[in-house]
Amino acid sequence: MLSVENLSVTFRTDEGIVTPVADVSFALAEGRTLGLVGESGSGKSVTAKALMRLLPGTATLGAHSRMRYVDKAGQAIGIERLSPRARALRRLRGGEIGMIFQEPMASFSPVYTIGNQITEAIALHRGLKGRAARALAIEMLAKVGIASPERRIDQYPHTLSGGMRQRAMIALALSAGPRLLIADEPTTALDVTIQAQVLDLMRGLQCDLGMAMIFISHDLGVIAQVAQEVAVMYLGTIVERGPVRALLQAPAHPYTRGLIAAIPRLDRLEGRLHPVPGEIPSPSARPAGCPFHPRCAEALAGICATRVPEPVDLGGGRVVRCHLHTGERSVA
Ligand code: SF4
Question: How much is the mean pLDDT over the chain?
Fold first, then answer.
């Protein structure tokens, strides 16, 4: 239902042109979940916003960027060609593609009740008004596990607890009946017990409603729970992608191995955590060659600092960008 090819995004900034997303490609089939994982600054959210055409005016899509979405009616839409004010784009947002954010107040206006905001989405995308829209809004709030939804619907967002606001935001996104949900770090701000509840809820709703999902997180452990496919991003590029189980069992890219080693595990509480050394650079200071080379313990001398690795097909749906898989050897 969605294919993204060679997506690149540049921003005009005071420091010059920066490229937070460079040559990103992936595909998503109906009802499947793709996890986008990487540290803060890896380009995950910019990729999601590009798909919704929610980027600021300082952003430009690369000339070769293609984002093709096949809608309910089977019509292919070139998202990159839509003008930000096009009616087709308004229909796409919410009704076909919904988005939920890490911070629920980014979706809710503080001056309207959650009921006002959910019924407005229902009226816009499902054509229901009045009592029918309110009944559906209450049903959606109940579906996301909010107790006493008949009472909660008339509350303002700031009067709900963090976990409840997050659930209400999921209800808001789902009330428009999207076929694809983009969830940008939807559980990061929650404590672990509420996080587990919200992940359970999202998995259940996805099965019930048959939606596809792009789930964005910095946490590979969370991605492993919700996604069938995973794409690992580093400095705006997908460095490795493939089926989640195969990728976690035998990661091919040193950065993916670093992310896995950094996941805290109960069976090694005595040992030390192993964070990926160093920090992700700013997109304005993108290193030459492989962008990960300043932090990579396996970098090949004379190669990794100068040559950008091309994608290598490992078979079984797995692709990696790393010179270790191209048969290169260190140059003395
Ligand atoms: Fe490390 Fe080189 Fe592979 Fe980049 S290309 S991840 S620097 S080994």
Answer: 89
Q: How far is the CA of 329 from the centre of ligand 1 (A)?
A: 11
pLDDT per position as a tens digit, 256-297:
999 988 877 666 555 666 777 888 888 888 899 999 999 999
Q: Domains of the chain (ranges plus CATH)?
A: 1-96+179-266+273-280 (3.40.50.300), 110-177 (no CATH)
- Amino acid in position 83: S
Q: How many CA atoms lie within 13 A of 113 on its CB side?
A: 13
> What are the backbone dihedrals phi and psi of residue 221, each rounded to the nearest 5 degrees, phi first?
-65, -40
Dump the DSSP string for 68-111. EEE-TTS-EEEGGGS-TT-HHHHHHBTTTEEEE-SSGGGTS-TT
- What pLDDT, in 10s, does the model give residues 131-171? 999 999 999 899 888 899 999 999 999 999 888 888 898 88
Pairing of strands 97-100, 212-217: unpaired
Angle between helices 114-126 and 130-143 (to 10 degrees): 110
- Is residue 274 within a helix (H) or strand (E), and if so which, with residue range? none
Give 21 Cα–ligand 1 centroid separation in angstroms: 19
Using CA positions, which residue lies closest to atom 5 of ligand 1? 322
For the chain, give me the number of helices (H) and strands (E)? 10, 13
**Residues whose CB falls within 8 Å of the CB of residue 171, separated by 6 or more in sequence, listed in order:** 114, 118, 137, 140, 141, 143, 144, 146
Q: Is 144 strand, coil or helix?
A: coil
Residue 209 corresponds to which tokens in the numbers above?
Answer: 């409603």
Question: Separation of 71 CA from ligand 1 center, angstroms?
Answer: 39
Which residues, 6 or more positions from 221, have their beta carbon under 8 angstroms from its beta carbon? 263
The strand ranges marked E within 29-65 are 33-37, 59-61
